[in-house]
Write a structure and sequence with these properties.
Blueprint (H helix, E strand, L loop, with lengths): L2 H5 L3 E4 L8 H11 L4 E6 L4 H9 L2 E6 L6 H9 L4 E2 L1 H14 L10 H11 L4 H8 L3 H15 L4 H10 L4
Parallel strand pairs: 1-2, 2-3, 3-4
Helix pairs in contact: 6-8, 7-8
Length: 169
């Protein structure tokens, strides 16, 4: 690798399914040599081990190719110090960690309410959730009201605290 060229980069987009090297191995190699470089995975793989290894070995973002809508905003968020995951990847990770929690105090929530709670936690707005789930904003608001009632919270801050205690975040 030409060190000067790599050091001048702000971000690098790589795929996991590369022809001569596994993208995770490439990620490890690059991140070990250039730890400040923002590395974003853009791939068709959404298996737990691929996602967790990418994040463990230094990926700043994980974008599923089927969900590339606005790559520019995703990359800008990462360059500004944040991270980004495709919505379904965020839900996937959230579900994984929730499944690791022994006591689930969200058992009163319906499957749809749990799905909406996960989307709220990932920062999605009512409009975004409505579009993502292909239901009206009014329906989403009704589900959110039910979630607030069932979890005995009255605002988003309390909801996030409660969700954290339940293993969502």
């Amino acid at each position: 690798m030409n060190d000067h060229r790599v050091e001048s980069l702000d971000a690098l987009l790589i795929d996991i399914g590369l022809p001569h090297m596994n993208g995770i191995d490439l990620l490890k190699l690059i991140h070990s040599r250039y730890p400040k470089l923002k590395i974003i995975i853009i791939t068709a793989f959404n298996a737990d081990d691929m996602i967790f290894n990418a994040l463990k070995f230094g990926a700043s973002g994980y974008i599923w190719k089927n969900e590339i809508k606005n790559i520019k905003d995703s990359v800008l968020a990462i360059l500004e110090g944040g991270s980004y995951m495709s919505p379904s990847i965020g839900i996937h990770i959230s579900q994984y960690f929730r499944s690791q929690v022994k006591e689930n105090s969200d058992s009163s929530l319906s499957t749809r309410e749990k799905q909406i709670l996960e989307l709220i936690i990932t920062g999605r707005s009512v409009t975004q959730i409505s579009k993502l789930l292909s239901v009206s904003e009014g329906t989403i608001r009704k589900h959110i009201n039910n979630i607030y009632s069932k979890l005995e919270v009255s605002n988003r801050v309390q909801l996030m605290q409660k969700a954290r205690g339940m293993g969502y975040v």
